[in-house]
Design brief:
Rossmann fold, 7-stranded parallel sheet, 49% helix, binds acetoacetyl-coenzyme A, acetoacetyl-CoA reductase activity, KR_dom, Beta-ketoacyl-ACP reductase, Sc_DH/Rdtase_CS, Acetoacetyl-CoA_reductase
């Protein structure tokens, strides 16, 4: 039987590439999304991957969503915590809402999604948790005190949980993408974006597929000895 993978924020951007790539590798894949119903419907029509609407920022919705996916596809073996948002502002202009929205989705969302799946993975003695952090969680970024804090938190979460999962056959890893050509990065003002691209040694933005291939490796049986690791995929922009 095919392993079951759930990708949060999986109907657009990096998440969509991950979902499609895992499906092409033979996994049974589900994608969650928070808001854009039109994009999700188009994605399901194009790929045949079922999409489910809930907010990763809401614990109860995550519990319900996971139960729905498992009723349809079976126990989830692979969780890709990809859903994320930006609310960029220099700190002197950042509001409490901008802080909380980003923390609730990008950090608490990872707790909210992983927690309901954890005991099942422990009982079945297999699991793959793959968290999508960011280069900006490693190096910090002007106007992203909220985002950088949440994404750095995802790295700490990964390292702690990897220790707890190790004896139960669960690996927990984190990928730190650099700047990838998605709606999120294209929303950065063009002038700022061009100056960022000039600092990327490979000379281009990443493609969503660059990240999907990293996920496929970490999800595979070949990666059973890889846990608690941080995989950076950023075109050389920041070296850790
Ligand atoms: N470093 C230093 N100073 C900077 C700066 C930087 N990177 N960016 C802007 N500034 C300066 C500006 O030059 C300006 O200075 P002056 O007042 O002296 O002119 C000052 O900061 C404030 O600028 P603004 O008044 O234009 O600020 P604003 O309130 O309009 O905010 C912004 C603009 C939100 C900062 C905008 O420039 C922006 O979006 N920057 C990009 C932030 C970024 O990289 N976000 C990443 C998004 S993609 C992502 O997050 C995916 C991922 O994981 C990689």
């Amino acid at each position: 039987m095919a392993r079951v993978a759930l990708v949060t924020g999986g109907s657009r951007g990096i998440g969509a590439a991950i979902a499609k790539h895992l499906k092409a590798e033979g996994y049974s894949v589900a994608a969650s999304f928070a808001g854009n119903e039109e994009a999700a419907a188009a994605f399901t029509e194009e790929t045949g991957i079922p999409t489910y609407k809930w907010s990763v920022a809401d614990y109860d919705e995550c519990v319900e969503g996971v139960a729905k996916v498992e009723a349809d596809l079976g126990p989830i073996d692979i969780l890709v915590n990809n859903a994320g948002i930006t609310r960029d502002a220099p700190f002197h202009k950042m509001t409490r809402e901008q802080w909380s929205e980003v923390m609730d989705t990008n950090l608490s969302g990872v707790f909210n999604m992983t927690h309901p799946l954890w005991n099942g993975m422990r009982e079945r003695k297999f699991g793959r948790i793959i968290n999508i952090s960011s280069i900006n969680g490693q190096k910090g970024q002007f106007a992203q005190a909220n985002y950088s804090a949440a994404k750095a938190g995802d790295i700490g979460f990964t390292k702690a949980l990897a220790q707890e999962g190790a004896r139960a056959g669960i690996t927990v890893n984190v990928i730190c993408p650099g700047y990838v050509a998605t709606d999120m990065v294209m929303a950065v003002p063009e002038k700022v974006r061009d100056s960022i691209i000039s600092t990327i040694p490979v000379g281009r933005l990443g493609e969503p597929e660059d990240i999907a291939r990293c996920v496929a490796f970490l999800a595979s049986d070949d990666a059973g000895f890889v846990t608690g690791s941080t995989l950076t995929a950023n075109g050389g922009q920041y070296m850790t």
